[in-house]
Amino acid sequence: MKQSGGYKTKQKEQILQYLTSHEGQHVTAQELSRHLEEEGTPVGTATIYRCLDQLVSEGVLRKYTFDSRTCACYEYLPHSHECKRHFHLKCLQCGKLYHVTCEHLSGLEDHILEHHGFQIDQSKTVLYGICAECREKE
Questions:
Q1: Domain that holds residue 120
Q2: CA distance 134 to 138
Q3: Labelling 15: which of 5, 8, 30, 85 has CA 20 to 30 A away?
Q4: CA distance 2 to 18
């Protein structure tokens, strides 16, 4: 487990433990709060956000914000450099965020750099649409 710097508290350790056990998933502050409450160790919302912000600044977490209607979500980064090597797809119906490594999308990135002089930061790219699971429900 990647250790974060800074002041360690029991609350921070509980938050970090939850996040590491959900590696590869996108967790909201509300989900984290609900889990801690269910475990009998409730933590105040302000404390959760303060801790999450600290872990983001330490490089332990990545924060994803999408629009004004959706809560930010956080991802534990055991190998933070890997998130810079793929694109993100966000389902507008269920809200899931997918990490996609795709040769075709990398070709688009190369085209934009070569023909438009603009270098894309893959860690911040989000393409919006409807996932296969939600399309099947329609």
A1: 82-137
A2: 7
A3: 85
A4: 13
Separation between Cα atoms, residue 87 and residue 99, nearest integer Å: 6
Which CATH number does the domain housing residue 74 bear?
1.10.10.10
Residues 59 and 89 in one domain: no
pTM confidence score: 0.60
Tell which residue, 123, 86, 90, 125, has the closest CA to residue 106.
86
Bridge partners, residue 98, by sequence? 89
53-94: per-residue pLDDT in tens? 998 888 888 888 877 777 888 888 776 545 556 788 888 888
In this structure, the strands spanning 73-76 and 61-64 are: antiparallel
Shared domain for 74 and 100, answered yes or no, is no
> Tokens in use for 134?
């939600």
What is the C-alpha separation between 100 and 105, in angstroms, rounded? Answer: 9
pLDDT in tens, 26-43: 899 999 999 999 999 888
- E strand segments, the chain: 61-64, 73-76, 87-91, 97-100, 126-129
**What is the C-alpha radius of gyration for the chain, rounded to an integer number of angstroms?**
17
* CA–CA separation, 50 and 48 (whole Å): 5
